[in-house]
Amino acid sequence: MPAQILKGKPLADKIKEQTRKEVEELKQKGIEPFLVAVQVGENAASKFYTDNQRKNAEQLGIKYELRELPAETTQEELIKYIEDLNNDDKVSGIILQMPLPPHIEAREVQWKIAFEKDIEGVTPHNMGLVSFGKPRLAPCTAVGAYELVKSTGIDLTGKEVVVVGHSDIVGKPAALLHLNDLGTVTVCHIGTAKAGKTPEHVARADVLIVAVGVPGLIKGEWIKPGAIVIDIGINEVDGKIVGDVEFDKAVERAGIITPVPGGAGTMTTAILLRNVVEAAKWQAEKR
Ligand SMILES: Nc1nc2c(c(=O)[nH]1)N[C@@H](CN(C=O)c1ccc(C(=O)N[C@@H](CCC(=O)O)C(=O)O)cc1)CN2
């Protein structure tokens, strides 16, 4: 029997509605959540994301500004810009859009974001909270994938969770979030692929999360019958958006599978905006 298709929109809509209510409550207390996105130079994928941020923030009553800096901005100038945003009490959340121009070391700048305003969860403090099982502002796409898995009702205790991809912003935090729920977590990466072992790990997965950015990397026949498959890949092939999982074959084996587009990616902005509210609350606690 073909898999159940798990779309992201219903859960994302629920999160946005809850966030909209929380924004109203904060405003009644005199707190206005305010998101600032910082873009250095131009990038099409990033523009698509910031357009979505603006549209959704406006719908939820969150103040939004996109600050566009020239591609020639130096690392020192960008750090100063971030520090000014850290010191601006009106700003609740900061997102530094990727990619940055090659002369800027992303981590050097991201780590300067005040952790209470770090709505992407990219600072050591927030990543540390994820690893201690106390996430507060955690990476959006990883949280989106985790919450989609949880929405299926699965008890992760002892389940084989296989994460393919070990990026700081998706693979690693996704692995930690599932580990916190007592999943037995395996992370596959380039070393696993070089050893030719990705298929055997994937074949064990009760829950498979894929975030690599290689179209059709995960073959349908590798998937364990009945598995939950969360595909985070967004790739353009011949003008079509496809994921990292060979969907047509995977859908015949999986129990539940997210589509691309319309699956896990749909959760990212919802979680980002929920994080803006959480950030505003965190700062209010400290005043
Ligand atoms: N600091 C960051 N910069 C950028 C990121 C990021 O996550 N953090 N993402 C990329 C581009 N990208 C993923 O690689 C991305 C592009 C667009 C969206 C987005 O708008 N998602 C929508 C849903 C879209 C859909 O229908 O599937 C949403 O969440 O509502 C997310 C991620 C660029 N730079």
TrEMBL record:
<keyword id="KW-0486">Methionine biosynthesis</keyword>
<dbReference type="GO" id="GO:0009086">
    <property type="term" value="P:methionine biosynthetic process"/>
</dbReference>
<keyword id="KW-0658">Purine biosynthesis</keyword>
<dbReference type="GO" id="GO:0006164">
    <property type="term" value="P:purine nucleotide biosynthetic process"/>
</dbReference>
<feature type="binding site">
    <location>
        <position position="234"/>
    </location>
    <ligand>
        <name>NADP(+)</name>
    </ligand>
</feature>
<keyword id="KW-0511">Multifunctional enzyme</keyword>
<dbReference type="GO" id="GO:0035999">
    <property type="term" value="P:tetrahydrofolate interconversion"/>
</dbReference>
<comment type="function">
    <text>Catalyzes the oxidation of 5,10-methylenetetrahydrofolate to 5,10-methenyltetrahydrofolate and then the hydrolysis of 5,10-methenyltetrahydrofolate to 10-formyltetrahydrofolate.</text>
</comment>
<keyword id="KW-0028">Amino-acid biosynthesis</keyword>
<dbReference type="Pfam" id="PF02882">
    <property type="entry name" value="THF_DHG_CYH_C"/>
</dbReference>
<dbReference type="InterPro" id="IPR046346">
    <property type="entry name" value="Aminoacid_DH-like_N_sf"/>
</dbReference>
<comment type="pathway">
    <text>One-carbon metabolism; tetrahydrofolate interconversion.</text>
</comment>
<dbReference type="GO" id="GO:0000105">
    <property type="term" value="P:L-histidine biosynthetic process"/>
</dbReference>
<feature type="domain" description="Tetrahydrofolate dehydrogenase/cyclohydrolase catalytic">
    <location>
        <begin position="6"/>
        <end position="120"/>
    </location>
</feature>
<dbReference type="GO" id="GO:0004477">
    <property type="term" value="F:methenyltetrahydrofolate cyclohydrolase activity"/>
</dbReference>
<keyword id="KW-0554">One-carbon metabolism</keyword>
<feature type="domain" description="Tetrahydrofolate dehydrogenase/cyclohydrolase NAD(P)-binding">
    <location>
        <begin position="139"/>
        <end position="283"/>
    </location>
</feature>
<dbReference type="GO" id="GO:0004488">
    <property type="term" value="F:methylenetetrahydrofolate dehydrogenase (NADP+) activity"/>
</dbReference>
<feature type="binding site">
    <location>
        <position position="190"/>
    </location>
    <ligand>
        <name>NADP(+)</name>
    </ligand>
</feature>
<dbReference type="GO" id="GO:0005829">
    <property type="term" value="C:cytosol"/>
</dbReference>
<feature type="binding site">
    <location>
        <begin position="165"/>
        <end position="167"/>
    </location>
    <ligand>
        <name>NADP(+)</name>
    </ligand>
</feature>
<comment type="subunit">
    <text>Homodimer.</text>
</comment>
<keyword id="KW-0378">Hydrolase</keyword>
<dbReference type="InterPro" id="IPR020631">
    <property type="entry name" value="THF_DH/CycHdrlase_NAD-bd_dom"/>
</dbReference>
<dbReference type="InterPro" id="IPR036291">
    <property type="entry name" value="NAD(P)-bd_dom_sf"/>
</dbReference>
<comment type="similarity">
    <text>Belongs to the tetrahydrofolate dehydrogenase/cyclohydrolase family.</text>
</comment>
<keyword id="KW-0368">Histidine biosynthesis</keyword>
<dbReference type="InterPro" id="IPR020867">
    <property type="entry name" value="THF_DH/CycHdrlase_CS"/>
</dbReference>
<dbReference type="InterPro" id="IPR000672">
    <property type="entry name" value="THF_DH/CycHdrlase"/>
</dbReference>
<dbReference type="InterPro" id="IPR020630">
    <property type="entry name" value="THF_DH/CycHdrlase_cat_dom"/>
</dbReference>
<keyword id="KW-0521">NADP</keyword>
<dbReference type="Pfam" id="PF00763">
    <property type="entry name" value="THF_DHG_CYH"/>
</dbReference>
<keyword id="KW-0560">Oxidoreductase</keyword>
<protein>
    <recommendedName>
        <fullName>Bifunctional protein FolD</fullName>
        <ecNumber>1.5.1.5</ecNumber>
        <ecNumber>3.5.4.9</ecNumber>
    </recommendedName>
</protein>
